[in-house]
């Protein structure tokens, strides 16, 4: 096998007659700039007029314009030091309560006040200044004058623990695993990782534990992870909204007294945010709603609607809810390689009533072309933390067919949202 690294492949100093130093400091795609600017003009009007979908299209166009206009040299700097240091500065700001303090005042706050209000014993003005200047440079706060700052909507969002917890969660469960991926892949000759106990995660964190074993040892990190999961899909199209999946088809026929009267079992459902959303959006739906997860996770499901039942359950064991109308798996299978997914799916299949029960899988289906970075980036997170994956349609079809399921339909909301894969037992 050819080792694709800088040592064995000679460096190229020119391309199509241009020296690399010239390429590196010229815009990446100057020929696209005019067209992108034009579409941004018309999309801005659609956005201002409140047209559905215009914001996301405008955002995509703006992102493309940034990439086209930026020079490769600038792009290198963005990835190599803007993004990692922005993460570190934001996590520091969260630890110090800077976002909470700024958000609780409607006036500009001087750094002299921030340095004393943050609760840190010895936060010097110099440190505060360095933190605040970078937070402003990456738009996490807004500079209003020399050494004074105010909050913006990002500040206000990360002033809230449920959203802020994304940062310590990723620092504590993911960043070292991602950093370990290149060396891991090189050592394993670029084979697709398929063992959650020998993955970049174990290398990055110097542990023998699986991701969930590691998490279970640290109650603070677990709570932060569960918070991240509880807000992770906010603002995206939800399968239970009108125009996505016809929820009515689950409600007819209604669960009857001849079956356990269970409408929906959320397997590995975390703190129950999906069932809460379902109860709010479909208040008249008859049938029991059951939340299953590990006992420690269920203990954190404090805001659960009173009609939702908690049921501790290890999804590798026999499914106690038999013949339910639907079993729901949201962001569960992507945590596991195929062979382990088969072990999660087998007890579900055994519990399902053929021709009646449905399996609903709410996950990304990576498209054949033009996959979005949110999905491909998550794929790399899954590779690093679990030897798991975001799957393509062909991969989903292969996995579900091996598990004894027939896909009835893959329901798609929009390009930015997870799909709903509706299956039944393949008798
Ligand atoms: C990525 S989270 C998804 C949570 C939720 N479904 C969501 O979409 O927000 C995966 C969930 O699987 C749960 N889990 C992991 N191993 C499990 C097991 N053996 N049995 C039951 N749940 C498990 C975790 O506790 C976690 O809540």
Automatic annotation (TrEMBL):
Pfam families: Methyltransf_2. Keywords: Methyltransferase, S-adenosyl-L-methionine, Transferase. The keyword Methyltransferase applies. Residues 262-406 form the O-methyltransferase C-terminal domain. One of its GO terms (molecular function) is O-methyltransferase activity. One of its GO terms (biological process) is secondary metabolite biosynthetic process. This is S-adenosyl-L-methionine-dependent methyltransferase. It comes from Aspergillus ibericus CBS 121593. The lineage of its organism: Eukaryota, Fungi, Dikarya, Ascomycota, Pezizomycotina.
């Amino acid at each position: 096998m050819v080792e694709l690294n800088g040592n064995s492949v000679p460096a190229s100093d020119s391309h199509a007659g241009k020296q690399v130093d010239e390429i590196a400091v010229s815009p990446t795609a100057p020929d696209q700039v005019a067209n992108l600017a034009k579409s941004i003009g018309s999309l801005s009007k659609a956005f201002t007029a409140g047209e559905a979908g215009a914001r996301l299209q405008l955002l995509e166009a703006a992102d493309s314009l940034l990439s086209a206009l930026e020079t490769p040299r600038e792009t290198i700097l963005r990835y190599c030091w803007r993004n990692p240091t922005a993460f570190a500065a934001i996590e520091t700001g969260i630890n110090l309560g800077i976002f909470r303090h700024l958000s609780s005042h409607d006036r500009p706050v001087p750094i002299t006040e921030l340095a004393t209000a943050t609760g840190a014993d010895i936060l010097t003005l110099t440190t505060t200044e360095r933190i605040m200047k970078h937070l402003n440079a990456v738009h996490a706060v807004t500079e209003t004058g020399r050494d004074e700052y105010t909050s913006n909507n990002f500040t206000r969002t990360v002033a809230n623990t449920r959203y802020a917890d994304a940062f310590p969660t990723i620092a504590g469960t993911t960043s070292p695993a991602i950093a370990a991926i290149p060396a891991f892949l090189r050592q394993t000759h670029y084979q697709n990782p398929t063992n959650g106990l020998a993955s970049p995660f174990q290398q990055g964190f110097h542990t023998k534990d699986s991701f969930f074993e590691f998490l279970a040892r640290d109650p603070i990190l677990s709570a932060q992870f569960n918070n991240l999961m509880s807000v992770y899909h906010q603002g995206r199209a939800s399968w239970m909204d009108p125009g996505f999946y016809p929820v009515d088809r689950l409600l007819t026929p209604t669960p009857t007294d001849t079956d356990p009267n269970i409408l929906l079992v959320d397997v590995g459902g975390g703190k129950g945010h999906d069932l809460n959303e379902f109860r709010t959006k479909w208040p008249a739906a008859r049938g029991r709603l059951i939340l299953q997860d590990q006992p420690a996770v269920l203990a954190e499901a404090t805001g659960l609607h009173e009609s939702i039942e908690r049921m501790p359950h290890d999804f590798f064991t026999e499914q106690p809810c038999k013949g339910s109308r639907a079993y729901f798996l949201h962001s569960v299978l992507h945590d596991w390689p195929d062979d382990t997914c088969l072990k999660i799916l087998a007890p579900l299949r055994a519990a399902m009533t053929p021709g009646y029960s449905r399996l609903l899988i709410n996950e990304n289906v990576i498209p054949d072309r033009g996959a979005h970075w949110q999905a491909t980036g998550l794929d790399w997170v899954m590779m690093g933390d679990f030897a798991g994956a975001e799957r393509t349609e062909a991969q989903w079809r292969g996995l579900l067919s091996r598990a004894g399921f027939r896909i009835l339909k893959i329901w798609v909301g929009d390009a930015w949202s997870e799909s709903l894969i509706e299956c039944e037992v393949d008798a």
